[in-house]
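Q: Given only this backbone (321 positions), what sequence would you predict?
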């Protein structure tokens, strides 16, 4: 199924207006900022709900206090074709994380929190700089724990002329309340659905309720933005794009997730079935402890899941068509 068929055309790029501009024009953004900052007082920004007062710069489970930390920002040319285009996706990599994935390929950023603390204006300036570089969107990488800080910066960025679609690139351990606050802000939700079974979520993510939470979140994201739609050049403008990383010896997890997406979100759900798993983080350091996933993914394993997704009729990322 071609994901760029005419029914998935939204509008021409010059006619597109990001959701957040309408929210700003209706004077609703300030209320969302206030609500987000309230979440920080006894932190319930993400599904972890660790309860610390981050307004007073207490450090949450994520490792972050009052201000966001950014490890890097740049035009990323390694994202999906519909995001990177010819000039790149304007990625902002946030330090810290509310998950503890033992296989994390960004261990230094997520676990060790390597990065620079930034206040709202500096974060806004980063987004404006990415726009000036010609990036097709602003891609917030691992933002679940810093949504209030992002909202503060968004207001400043709007007033400086930001007008790109915003991609919410999440590990999908957000709180439902926070995702509801983002209604009318986010144009493209890009959740990564990792595991299905509770015991694996606990073992590999330190979050036994992860899968249950992810299912609720993805339904809400879909309710807000619908299926992924594009401009005249095949660049994504609005909608849901679900990622799933296939892992060795865990193909049954992939099949359960893909079946659920086809049934609950629909066969028009745009899915990137990813093949780039390799041992990293704690898995690399303790391979005996995590024996099942201590080797790279084999091509035949990936091909099995890719064909499974095709047979379900899902709308797959264009690179595999």
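A: Predicted residues:
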């Amino acid at each position: 199924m071609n994901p760029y068929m005419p029914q998935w055309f939204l509008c021409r790029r010059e006619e597109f207006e990001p959701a957040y501009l309408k929210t700003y024009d209706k004077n609703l953004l300030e209320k969302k900022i206030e609500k987000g900052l309230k979440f920080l007082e006894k932190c319930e920004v993400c599904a972890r709900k660790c309860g610390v007062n981050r307004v007073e710069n207490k450090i949450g489970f994520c490792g972050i206090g009052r201000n966001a930390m950014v490890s890097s920002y740049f035009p990323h040319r390694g994202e999906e074709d519909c995001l990177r285009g010819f000039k790149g996706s304007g990625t902002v990599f946030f330090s810290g994380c509310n998950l503890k994935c033992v296989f994390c390929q960004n261990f230094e950023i997520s676990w060790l929190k390597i990065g620079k603390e930034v206040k709202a204006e500096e974060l806004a300036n980063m987004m404006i700089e990415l726009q000036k570089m010609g990036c097709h969107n602003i891609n917030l990488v691992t933002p679940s724990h810093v949504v209030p800080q992002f909202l503060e910066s968004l207001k400043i960025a709007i007033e400086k002329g930001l007008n790109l679609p915003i991609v919410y690139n999440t590990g999908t351990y957000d709180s439902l309340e926070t995702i509801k606050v983002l209604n009318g802000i986010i144009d493209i939700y890009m959740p990564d659905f990792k595991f299905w079974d509770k015991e694996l979520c606990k073992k590999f993510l330190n979050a036994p309720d992860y899968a249950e939470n992810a299912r609720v979140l993805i339904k809400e994201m879909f309710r807000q933005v619908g299926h992924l739609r594009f401009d005249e050049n095949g660049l994504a403008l609005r909608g849901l794009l679900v990622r799933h990383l296939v892992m060795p010896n865990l193909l049954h997890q992939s099949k359960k997730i893909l079946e659920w997406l086809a049934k609950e979100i629909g066969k028009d759900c745009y899915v990137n079935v990813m093949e780039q798993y390799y041992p990293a983080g704690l898995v690399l350091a303790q391979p005996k402890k995590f024996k099942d996933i201590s080797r790279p993914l084999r091509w035949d394993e990936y091909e099995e899941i890719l064909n499974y997704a095709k047979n379900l009729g899902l709308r797959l990322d264009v690179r595999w068509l």
